[in-house]
Design a protein that fits this description.
The structure holds two protein chains of two kinds. By secondary structure, chain A is an alpha/beta fold. Chain A is built from ten helices and 17 strands. A six-stranded mixed sheet of chain A has the order 6-7-8-3-9-10, sandwiched between helices. The N and C termini of chain A lie far apart (71 Å). By secondary structure, chain B is mainly alpha-helical. Chain B has a single domain, classed as ABC transporter involved in vitamin B12 uptake, BtuC, CATH 1.10.3470.10. Chain B has helices at 2-36, 44-53, 58-91, 104-118, 125-157, 161-184, 188-198, 207-226, 228-234, 238-243, 248-270, 276-288, 293-315, 326-348. The chains are: A alpha/beta, B mainly alpha.
Chain lengths: 342, 349
């Protein structure tokens, strides 16, 4: 069976991914019929244990499919020779590599392994790709450092640099930003974005950083109940798929800001008077304090406005009126005390 | 940036070359020193004289028949054990791995014991010599190979570095009990030849044995030389090495063949020698500050050879009639390095 989608980088045909333990097969996801286009940035999300890593490993050729086929650029994965596959599909996991006396540059140079002759000697072009990969990931200044002496985040960036140096058309990454701080998370996801936009590389990665994934990925493959829910981030939201991440545990996905919130029982409704972002952020605070922000008239109201000293909030209820509160923090404190005052 | 890189490469490579040259000079120096020093002190000038004129003096026979072969044996043994240690540390991704600590040397002894003692009823002491150096070597390779495969299989299940070490100790212990049981049941003459073999040192190899050893060590080194690229990839683990295109099964077979050849041969002719294999790769990494096997292999060869030559010099207690067992000296040199390596590893654990 040869793939019929000419533009697809990867096609999964009735693929079931799972693992084997003591002779028994545990299928986790599938059967799947889905394909990833060239140059797409695809995020796999799902709960822990849903089979994200297993699926990624199967696509990368590290695990045999329980059933079905993986077709890479029109050819079945098992028709590839080792070397060819290494030039086409790159993979990183969350495993933290520790090697005695290994320098960052030596790790990144290993990315060129499929292209070097038996001696392992790097050509001028290989060296340039290694340097470029370290520049892109922002670790060029660390190139002479030992990887054992790096922070977890720096080491992860070095691993990603190795993957970029491998220069494959398809990049499979299992939680590439798991160990990184927020700035590094953004930098790496942006890097993946530019790899797909500028180099037309297909990137499939898993992660838990929803708002980042919603903002940057072309597609989301959400694994739930052994199935994949596929769509652009916006499709996922509008079709109500996101709630499958939580089922019914008292959390709801908020369509407006791509976060999960506890299903609130609000104490009362609060009318908010204000404009633009002042209104938006005031509403967030009001919600957190346990009240539902509305725009029709109610017995409690919050007004946000500005005088010559800056922003202020005034909270009114039937028998009570706050002074000019100068911070949102004071406002929420006032609101939390309200029920007792009512 | 590209220019900067080139500059780095040149200076890095030049530094490594320079360092390698220094190590080479030290090795040559130790080799000569090993020939000069001994229980009978001979002046260097006399040695050169004797070698050039080939006069059939007593000094000539000491030098040519005893000291030079012994220095060669020490050099080859040091190389073999150290290269084995390097390969084992990389394949098992375990800084504590080495032919002795993992019980591979013990496995090689078992191979020889089975050959000498197991067939004791069929052989006389005379026929043992007829067994020849090759069959003893081959028995040792097999013993070493079997232990490597056992450790390999278990390390697929257990990833813990220290657990694997304990396993090696258990294997060594188990193997020596098997050997003692075999000794109990074997004839006196066989026992005697076996005991003499176990006390094997660097000094009593026949020229034929030395030839066999040289051939096997060269073969092991050639295999190792052709697997340098593979070894580099294996550093980051089998999963990643696989995604880089390494055929893991084949890589293991190739590298384990080399390790069995190297460790087996040395153990067959010199007896088990401890702690060189585990210590020397650490010394090499400390000096050369790299994990690249293209640099590490030659440096391990030279440092391994040097350390063994130095151990041999010390074991002869120059100027005195007494000789220490070389195994005691190598342990005293190797163990501090191993402890240092453990402390270094724990720091990052």
């Amino acid at each position: 069976m040869i793939g019929n989608d000419k533009t697809a980088a990867i096609e999964l045909k009735s693929l079931t991914a799972g693992y084997k333990k003591e002779g028994t097969i545990f299928p986790l996801v599938g059967p799947l019929n889905i394909s990833a286009g060239k140059g797409e940035l695809i995020a796999i999300i799902g709960r822990n244990g849903s089979g994200k890593s297993t699926l990624l490993k199967t696509i990368a050729g590290l695990l045999k499919p329980v059933e079905g086929d993986i077709i890479i650029k029109g050819r079945k994965i098992n028709e590839y020779k080792r070397g060819e596959l290494a030039e086409t599909v790159g993979y990183i996991s969350t495993e933290q590599i520790r090697v005695d006396s290994m320098k960052v540059i030596e790790l990144v140079e290993l990315g060129r392994y499929p292209y070097t002759p038996w001696s392992g000697r790097l050509s001028e072009a290989d060296n340039e790709k290694v340097i470029l990969a370290m520049e892109k990931t922002g670790i060029i200044d660390l190139k002479e450092n030992f990887i054992n002496e790096l922070s977890d985040g720096e080491r992860q960036k070095a691993m990603i640099a190795r993957l970029i140096a491998q220069d494959t058309d398809i990049l499979i990454m299992d939680e590439p930003v798991a160990f990184l701080d927020i700035r590094n998370k953004y930098e790496i996801i942006h890097l993946l974005r530019s790899l797909s936009d500028r180099k037309n590389k297909t990137v499939i990665f898993s992660g838990h950083d929803l708002s980042l994934i919603m903002a940057q990925s072309d597609r989301i493959w959400m694994i739930a109940d052994g199935k994949i829910y596929d769509g652009a981030p916006e499709d996922m939201v509008l079709n109500g798929f996101m709630n499958k991440l939580f089922d019914d545990n008292g959390f709801v996905f908020s369509e407006s800001d791509a976060t999960f919130k506890p299903r609130n029982e609000f104490l009362a409704e609060v009318k908010i008077n204000g404009e633009g972002i002042f209104r938006l952020w005031t509403e967030k605070a009001v919600n957190r304090a346990g009240f539902k922000g509305v725009s029709h008239k109610t017995s409690i109201s919050v007004t946000v406005d500005r005088d010559n000293e800056g922003l202020y909030w005034i909270c009114k209820s039937d028998n009570n009126e706050s002074p000019k509160l100068r911070t949102v923090y004071e406002l929420t404190k006032w609101l939390r005390n309200l029920p007792k005052k009512i | 940036m590209i220019n900067g890189k080139r500059k780095y490469e040149l200076s890095g490579r030049r530094k490594a070359t320079l360092l390698m040259l220094v190590v080479l000079i030290i090795t040559v120096f130790l080799f000569i020193l090993d020939i000069v020093l001994g229980s009978v002190s001979i002046k260097l000038k006399d040695i050169v004289d004797v070698l050039l004129n080939k006069s059939d003096s007593e000094i000539y026979s000491i030098i040519v028949k005893f000291r030079i072969p012994k220095a060669f044996t020490a050099f080859l043994a040091g190389i073999s054990l150290s290269v084995s240690g390097l390969q084992l540390q990389t394949i098992f991704r375990n800084p504590m791995a080495g032919p002795y600590v993992l019980g591979i040397s013990a496995g090689a002894s078992l191979g020889v014991a089975v050959l000498i003692l197991g067939f004791s009823d069929y052989f006389t002491a005379k026929s043992l010599e007829l067994l020849g150096s090759w069959s003893i070597a081959a028995a040792a390779w097999m013993g070493a190979g079997i232990v490597i495969v056992i450790i390999m299989l278990i390390s697929l299940k257990i990833k813990d570095i220290l657990a694997i070490l304990i396993l090696g100790i258990m294997l060594s212990g188990g193997i020596s009990s098997v050997v003692s049981i075999m000794q109990y049941f074997s004839s006196e003459t066989m026992l005697k030849s076996y005991v003499i073999w176990t006390m094997g040192s660097l000094g009593n190899l026949s020229s034929q044995q030395l030839q066999v050893m040289a051939v096997c060590v060269t073969a092991g080194l050639i295999i190792s030389f052709f697997s340098l690229k593979m070894l580099n990839a294996m550093l980051i683990g089998e999963v990643y090495a696989g995604t880089l295109g390494v055929n893991i099964k084949r890589a293991r077979i190739i590298i384990f063949t080399s390790t069995s050849l190297l460790t087996g041969t040395v153990t067959a002719f010199c007896g088990p020698i401890g702690f060189i294999g585990v210590a020397v790769p650490h010394i090499a990494r400390m000096f050369f500050k790299t994990s690249d096997h293209r640099v590490l292999l030659p440096s391990v060869v030279l440092i391994g050879g040097s350390v063994m030559l130095a151990s041999d010099i010390i074991s002869q207690l120059p100027g005195s009639e007494r000789v220490l067992p070389v195994n005691a000296v190598t342990s005293l040199i190797g163990i501090p390095v191993v402890i240092w390596a453990i402390l270094k590893t724990r720091k990052y654990a």
